[in-house]
Amino acid sequence: MMTAERLAHAIDILVDRVGRATSWLALGLALIMGTNVLLRYGFSIGSIWMQELEWHIMVPICVFGMSYALLQGEHVRVDVLFQYFSGKTKHLIDVITAILGMLLCVLVIKLCIPYVYQSWSINEGTANPGGIDYRYIVKGLIPLGFALYFLQSLSEAIKSYIAYRRA
């Protein structure tokens, strides 16, 4: 069992580092959005490139942030019901939901690989004049984000199973 605990710990460290690094993008996004608003409403200057940059920055925040939220326990849970369960039942529910999360990740990755492959094969860019090319890179983050979420769900399943066995 010690090996599983070490694996869960290693995954937690990875997700924590990726999440902390990704969180800095939120500051950049806020600055870019503030600049866009100031330019648009203060000076009547608009930039398609800057608007698309917002989208490009939002993608890693979302796809990597979901794993970090799970690690930190900031995900959505129906605590109204959960609070009344025994500790052992809570751990069992956590194991089941982690497994379901992993299955969802596998499904999303399986479904998005052709989508991402097509985007990479044509070097997909923007359809907007003056926009940002390299949209295929942003789309490539989708399976990576769900792979990271799969790993964090695996870590949660391991930790919850160990807690279930000890309860």
What's the quick description here?
With 167 residues, the protein is mainly α.
How would you sum up this structure, described in words?
There is one protein chain. This protein has 167 residues and is an all-alpha fold. The protein has one domain. The protein is 83% helix and 0% strand. It is built from 5 helices and no strands. The chain has helices spanning 2-43, 48-72, 79-82, 87-121, 135-166. It is elongated, with a radius of gyration of 20 Å. The model has no long low-confidence stretch (mean pLDDT 92).
Question: In terms of topology, how is this protein built?
Answer:
Elements: H1 2-43, H2 48-72, H3 79-82, H4 87-121, H5 135-166
Helix pairs in contact: 1-2, 1-5, 2-5, 4-5
Strand content: under 5%
Q: How much helical structure, as a percent, in the residues?
A: over 70%
Structural class: mainly alpha
Count all strands and give the number: 0
User: What letter string, H or E per element, gives the SSE order?
Assistant: HHHHH
Q: Helical element count?
A: 5
Gross morphology is elongated
Rg, alpha carbons: 20 Å
The poorly predicted ranges are: none
Distance between the termini: 16 Å
GO cellular component, one term: plasma membrane
Family: Belongs to the TRAP transporter small permease family.
Subunit structure: The complex comprises the extracytoplasmic solute receptor protein and the two transmembrane proteins.
InterPro entries: DctQ, TRAP_DctQ
